[in-house]
Structures are given as C-alpha cells and as structure tokens.
Amino acid sequence: MLQIASGKLFSRPVGRRNEHRGILYTNLRLGRDDPLETVAGRLLPATTLDDSRAVVYEAVELIEETPTGPGALVSRGMDPYLEEFAAISSFALNVVCTPNANLAARLLSNQRLVGVRGRPSKAVRRFFDDDVWCQGGDEARLQGLVADLIGLQRRSYRAAIRAIRTYVTGLHRLADDLELAYTLLVASIESLAQGFDGNQGSWEDYDSEKRTRIDKALADADAATAANVRSALLEIEHVSLARRFRDFTLDHVTDAYFRDEANFEDGPIGRAELPAALREAYRMRSKYIHNLEELPRIMTLGDSYRETVRLERKTMLTFQGLARLARCVITEFVRKQPKVEAEPYDYSLEQTGVVRVQMAPQYWVAALNGLTYDCGRRRLEGFAEQLASHLVGEPNASVTDLRELLAKVETLLSGMGVAQRRPFVALHILFNSYAPEAFKMPGFDVVRSKYATDLVGPTVEAMFFHLLSFSEPAWPLPEHEHVHREYFRARNWKDGLRMPKPLEAGVSLVLAERFRVIKDHARAAEWIRFAVENYPGHPRLRELETGFDKAVPIEWLKLVSAQKEGGAL
Asked: Does the chain have fewer CB atoms within 10 Å around its N or its C terminus?
C-alpha cells in the first residue's frame, strides 16, 4: 500500500493529497525530538515520558485522479499504511512494532506461556528487549530499506512485503508456537525463492522414484516425444523445492554476513557449512508441516543467543541464526532487484478493502461482448443458476432475456465443433422451451431440428438438458453413472461445467429413480445418500433418505422445492 500511495504506479495525475497520522506501539526508543524521515513517512516520539510505548507515524497519501464517471476515492484511511510501515520498521530495526497496543504489550511482557519452551526474549537478540534505543546505523538502515522497497517494480515489491510480513509474524509466534515460528522464518525466504530464483528445473531434479518409473514408461518412445513429456512434467511439478531454497539463500548471503555482521554473534555459521544447515532447516520445516514434529530440544532450551547448535554431527541454525540469515537474504533481495522511478500499473484489485466476487448472472449472461466459441458452458451455467432459482420458488427470481444473445449464437453454430456447440444448443433449446410463447425465437425450431442430436449421447450437458426437460435419457445405467461421476470430478476445472446445487441434487435423484424402477433399491439408496451429502442441510432430502418408500416415485423437483415442475418464466 505504501508504494501505491507514493504515486509511482499512477497512469493519471495526482487528484488528491491526504496527510495522515497514526500511532504505532514499539519497544523502539527514538531518543530524539526531531522526526526520523523516510520516503514513505516519518516517525516521531508521541510523548517525552520514558515509559511510553507509542510513536507517531505520519504519512502523505497520494490519490490518483479519478477517471470520468460515477464515484471517487477520497482516501484509503491510515490503517493499511500503519500496518505496512510497522512491519517494515519491525524488520529493518529488529524491534517489536505494531498498530495493536495489546499485541505489543503481550510480546514485550516476556512471559513464558504454558506449553511453550522458553521465553521469546531468549530466542532472538534485541527484538523482544524492553527498550531498544535508536542508533545512527538503525536510522540509515530503515531509510535505505524503505527507499529500496518503494523503488522496486511492483511484482518485486509485493513479494518483498509478503516476505517481510511473514518474517515478522514468525518472530511474533515465538511467544506461542516455536515450531510454527521456525517454519514461518524459513517460508519468508522460500517465498522469494519460488518466484525469483529463475529456476528452470532439470530432469535430474525430479523425484527419483517417479523419474525411474516415467523413464521406464518412455523407454519405447522416440526421443522427441520423451523429451516433450519430461518437459511438460517439469513445468507442472514443483521440482526440488529444498534445493531451490538453498540455492536462493546462498545467492543472497552477503560477504558482510560472515564478516562485520558476525563480529558480535555467538557461534555464527561459516559459509562452508551453511548449505547443510539450510538443508536441515528446510527438513525441520517440512517435518512440522507434514507431521507436526517438534524441533530438537537443544534448539529451544538454551539461554544464550548462539546462532548454531550441533546434534548428531549436524549443524543446525537456531532461531537467532535463522532470523539473522533471513533478514540478510530478504534485505539483499530488495537491494538487488531492479528499481524504477515510475511504473504505470493497474493496482485497483490490490487496494485494501477490495474483494473480488463472481458477478450475478444478470450482469453478464446475455452480454454480446465476450461471446466466443468457448464460452458456452459459462453462459449455460448463468442461465441454469437463474432458472434453478425460478424452479425452486426463490423470492424475486427472474431469468434474463437471452434472445439477442441467442440470435447471435444462431449465426455461429455452424462454425463450431460439437463440443463447443453442445452447451449453446442446450441453452438455446432450454431458454425457448421455458419462455412464454410471445418470447419464443423464430429460429427455435430450426436449431432444435438441426442440432438437437448433439444432446442425445451421454455427456454432462445432455444429462442436465434431460433433467431440465423432465425427460429420462436412454443411456444404459452404467453410462449414466459414468457421466454423473465425470461431472462431479471435473466441475471445478477451468473448462468444466458447474451447475447450482438443486440441479446437482436433481441429477443424483434421477439416477436413484432409475434404480428404484428396476427394483435395485440398494443402488437407489446410494444415490439418494449422494444427493443428501452433496446438498447438506436440505430437509426434504434428509426426509427422503430416512423414510425412503420404495413404492413411491422419486420426483426430483418436488424434493428440492415446493414449486411445481415446468411452467413458463
């Protein structure tokens, strides 16, 4: 948010300038009356009282000129800037800094919580000290980091802020969950490695067991095919994450880390043993994530600030060692990334308080813009959502007039492949079947007679078409069950089809009825159970499950609503 407020991402002139002021709570003692200035705002003492934990943060917020149209952004408020600057200050100065007074008080209480081994102040140097006086080097460090951050390209800035937030959160967790704290410190580096290490991966990096089996399967394939398969697998698999973490870290450790910065540290790690220690750190991270395994006790029971410990001939980074390493790596990443003075960028979805949601069908289902050969399933989904609301009797349910859209679709059908055409055909026939007579389209009969055969075979579109047409498909039951399973398996795929819950329950109940008719009551009960468990909380389905009468037909629409079948819109 600080980078947005700086104005460097704007495509239009500055339209508004707001001056903000807020309070941060910290163990940092500024020890000065004049402000500590940075390019993203300044810190001032809130009071001259020695026991005050508060400092004032002042910042200028630039708002981009609003384009022509309704609405205008006046301000984003101070909260997002307080939170981001607090995280940066905490990271740069190695102190507690937060807009939350209660959190600051808890972190600085130095209490040992039940179930937590050791006190936070004994795990890392300085961060949890009662008072940390700001020195000249601290001021320069904060100013330099803030300037470098604001200068980053947007992609790098967002990654760096995520890493900094994760690092600070990891230190906060020292007060209540040591294993999670260690994992987050590792993750703060790993997050950068995943996006900025330039790793392409090689076949040797692939899991050895999988690699052997795939090589055997490709033994008879020609060289080009085998290479293409291996390349595709490398693109979609996360290859050698631990190695990428190590390589990225080693590439961003500065010479000073082993020299001046190590002068006053206890047991600093050497460059030669750092790769093995990183391997152990990543292993402990993985053991916690997958098995909730505790850290070795030797890492959590000491009262010194040693950066390394030895156990079973292995060198391991302590919290102090890992924290100093993470700060070095993240800071160096920020320093090495390209800087730009201006970068016009659409940040609208990255602003605080902005949430992306799926628009209701009435806003897009009939739109001509965006109509392509491949959007048939999306349009069928939107229509089905509206139609289902109408059928089950939801208050104020309505269905959008699709005649203009479908008239355009009629001109495109002949150029489509069958798979592209099928959802459009289902949409066209269903809309006209439910529409009042005055709304039926002139081309309805032509489309139905020419393309209805697309909906004869066992496909997902045909299954829902039969459901909404109140007709039973002529497919053998095994094929019908296969289509049903395929729908639920693929409904969340990018090119899948996802229907509203009443219709999903409907296709399950249609299967149940087909099995009831042939007196396979056990299979009928299984499909009723499937409908219940995939439409949880629906009372009529529960009643059907508990009181299944084998002599009574299963009428899906009566069960999912009180509305009668069919009917005009």
From this structure: C
Cβ atoms of 383 and 399 within 8 Å: the answer is yes
Q: How far apart are CA 560 and CA 505, in angstroms?
A: 8
Measured CA to CA, the distance from residue 331 to residue 125 in angstroms comes to: 18
DSSP, residue by residue, 436-497 = -GGG--TTHHHHHHHHGGGGTSS-HHHHHHHHHHT----S-HHHHHHHHHHHHHHTTSTT--
Element (H, E) at 44: strand 41-45
Find out whether 347 and 4 touch, Cβ atoms under 8 Å: yes
DSSP, collapsed to helix, strand or coil, labels residue 408 as: helix
Which residues share a beta bridge with 22? 57
- The pLDDT confidence band at residue 162, using thresholds 50, 70 and 90, is very high
pLDDT of the residue at 479: 97
With beta carbons less than 8 A apart as the criterion, state whether 309 and 280 touch. no
- For residue 493, count CB atoms less than 10 angstroms from its CB and return exposed for 0-12, middle for 13-18, buried for 19 or more: exposed
What pLDDT digit, counting tens, does each position of 75-133 carry? 899 999 999 999 999 999 999 999 999 999 999 987 766 556 678 888 899 999 999 99
User: Which amino acid belongs to residue 364?
Assistant: W
Sequence-ordered list of residues with C-beta below 8 angstroms from that of 147, at least 6 positions apart, any chain: 38, 39
Torsion of CA 325, 327, 329, 335, to 10 degrees: -150
pLDDT confidence of residue 233: 72
Amino acid at the residue 537: G
- Residue-level pLDDT at 94: 96
pTM: 0.82
CA distance 254 to 178: 27
Alpha carbon distance 462, 422 (integer Å)? 8
Q: What is the pLDDT of residues 170-198, one digit of tens each?
A: 999 998 889 999 999 999 999 998 877 65
What is the distance between the terminal CA atoms of the chain, rounded to a whole angstrom? 48
